[in-house]
Amino acid sequence: MKIKSVNPYTEEVNWTYDALSFGNCEDQIEKSRAAFSGWSSLSVEERTTYIARAAEVLRQNKRIYAEIITKEMGKPIRQSLAEIEKCAWLCDYYAENAAEFLKDEVVETEAEKSYVTFEPLGTILGIMPWNFPFWQAFRFAVPTLTAGNVCLLKHASNVPGSALEIEKVFTEAGLPEDVFKTLLIDSKIAMEIIDEDLVDGVSLTGSVGAGSEIGELAGRLIKPLVLELGGSDPFIVLEDADIDRAAQVAVKSRFLNTGQSCIAAKRFIAIEDVVVDFIEAFELHMQELKIGDPMDEETDIGPVAKKEFADSLEKILKDAKKKGAEPHVYGEEHQKGFFFRPTLIPAASTDMKVFNVEVFGPIAPVIMVKDEDEAVEIANSTEFGLGAEIWSANLERAERLAKRVRSGFVTINGRVKSDPRLPFGGVKKSGIGRELSHYGLKEFVNIKTVVVNK
Description:
Helix 3 packs across helix 4 (77-101). This protein is an alpha/beta fold. It has a seven-stranded mixed sheet, sandwiched between helices. A six-stranded mixed sheet has the order 7-6-5-8-9-17, sandwiched between helices. A three-stranded antiparallel sheet has the order 3-4-18, with no helix packed on it. The protein contains 14 helices and 18 strands. It has helices at residues 22-41, 44-60, 62-73, 77-101, 133-146, 160-172, 187-195, 208-220, 243-255, 275-286, 307-322, 372-379, 395-404, 437-441; strands spanning 2-6, 13-18, 105-106, 113-120, 123-127, 150-154, 180-182, 201-205, 225-228, 233-237, 265-271, 328-329, 343-345, 363-369, 387-391, 409-412, 431-432, 445-452.
């Protein structure tokens, strides 16, 4: 089987690779298991020296990696460069803090000594998506490796070039052989690896369907897992909000990465007193977006990653029109490339698909509510619970509402964005477990209690 990397702007094939067979994977997993013994026996301080070097490699080759991202999934180059910088920051963060996070925790009991220690589990499989091809993989790998595990990466099939370059980053950083390996495989073989009990844990960022299937397998085999399954994040605008600032951030939050982000604001909920002003300001900032060649430093919106994604967005838009929507579409048509023009739906309703599914693309629905209670009710009305944004001049009021919104992350007067220092993850069907911070570092460890008596 061949795995192809296709440029969504030119529609030309970037690279073609041979996929691995299940037998190839078994051989590699055996090597990874052998590598675990030496890697896990290193001190945390020794392991973090390699992670610090990975940050250096990322920064030294930033442009090369960014261009691969842009060629493979169409991300505007400025955003691809920022993605590499964020990966380097992640490495810095764990290099500087992991030893403190993983040190034994002493607990006072009647025993001579009681403490909790954190031990790596073994070989962890990461199944990662295409939308942030370096960041998502590093977000999984860096804390997992730092904790003393070895990693196998099954990346999305449309970003094989990124997947192989990520392995090279760790190789150039000096990691021992087989501690981090990329497996160019399809989803069927990834499931077979889990089903055959070949790994000690699984981390998936992907769809609810994939998460459900992997969760079922992992549960049957009693495997620890982390699932980040996307979201339909509400963006609540209260009547006392700074409307222009809220609209400016709303446009950035919705259209970053051409709207292909789990934590993008996807449902805009505005109090009736300010909904007209918010829509007007939103449209003004939308008109500032430059759409076109993702390799152009000035471009804000590129193509979506695959043609079928644009087709899916068209179906969502068609459903909204059928139910009364009058979309406002911006930008020029492109004859080539998988483009979908930025679209505002200024009077959306809760029966539209655009308000009930995770829309992975540049469509922004706005709904009007009468008060904050209705805003929270609608914010909580989907199966997702990843992130949320609340805009208000009254911080006490906003924090009170934040407690009522069911999500893993709430930002007040700002954009939801992942940060190595903060735990990241969701509730409901947005997933289980956490990534990043000291919480993410401990997802794939044995939290072992040791009690010493005389």
